[in-house]
Amino acid sequence: MRVTQTMLTQTNLKHLSSSYNTLARVQEQLISGKRIQKASEDPVVAMQGIRYRTEVREVDQFRRNVSEATSWMDLTDSTLNEVTEAVKRIRELTTQAANDTYESSQREIIKSEIDQLVEHIGSLANSKAGEKYIYNGTKTDQPLIDMDKLKGYLKNDPLNPVTIAEIYTANEIPGDPDPSGKIEFEVSKGIKMQVNMQPETVFGQKLFEGLQKLSGLLGTATTGGADLSAELATLDTLGQSLITERAELGARANRLELVDNRLQDHEIIAKTIMSNNEDIDIEKVIMELKSHETVHRAALSAGARIIQPTLLDFLR
Fold first, then answer.
1. pLDDT tens figures, 188-204
2. Are 126 and 133 contacting, i.e. CB atoms less than 8 angstroms apart?
3. What whole-number distance in Å separates Cα of residue 175 and Cα of residue 3?
4. What is the rounded distance in angstroms from the CA atom of residue 252 to the CA atom of residue 191?
5. Measured on CA atoms in the order 169, 170, 176, 180, is the torsion positive or negative?
6. Residue 183, H or E segment
7. Which residues pair with 128 in a beta bridge?
8. β-strands 132-133, 128-129 pairing
9. DSSP per-residue string spanning 112-162
10. What pTM did the predictor assign?
11. Helix (H, G, I), strand (E, B) or coil at 29
12. Where is mean pLDDT largest: 96-100, 102-106, 118-122, 181-185?
């Protein structure tokens, strides 16, 4: 078979073009840090990459949920601690006022401080996490307590009576814990955790009725020390109830911490698997690039030798 100069030139150009494509592919890998740039290059890697990325995004979202839930619970625990301290202070003042040597004017001063503490408890019931009220069930856009009504309830004015139900913005006393009032965050696949304390478990009827009764006794001149001492048992019950609720909240917070630790490990594993699937071995790619560069230079050198002068070059 006769081999012409044109055939040699075309073959050389074809191989040079292939060499350029190989260099371009390796350079793209080196620049992007990824094995493939299009799904058509390796459908298996592309399909697995989509699955691994979905898993990483899920874990990231779960960790954001855990972070928000943790913030919600931390704020809840902080406010419950303040309520507990306020009830402790009210008990101290009640014990002090139960002394029969105290006059009505002195008890009136103690009543004033207790009323301020009760209003403080009411303001804590309206605590917010961001723009959400945390103690009003799923009604996170509404406060739990009407503070003006609470002040009227403590005054116990017969001309302008305020009922216990009216101090709540819903104008009804919170009843037994309502399952529909739970706020749950999905913190892992198939795992949801309640982040809120429902109003009836912390700021229910017993709390404000007990404190209002105590305030009324302190404002009555005929109240004796025994009457006030009898209220200490009610305050102890309220205090113990708050401690129980904080313990339950703490148990949930501990579980949430365990979930967060597991999610951190899961995130590291998922990202490692994703990296192994689609990221390049940079040392290997650099060596491959150097190798292809050497081959390409050799091809150029061979091409220069193949394209020799022809007879026409000597007939000028």
1. 988 999 999 888 888 98
2. yes
3. 99
4. 13
5. negative
6. none
7. 133
8. antiparallel
9. HHHHHHHHHHHHHHT-EETTEESSSTT-TTS-SB-HHHHHHHHHT-TTS--
10. 0.78
11. helix
12. 118-122
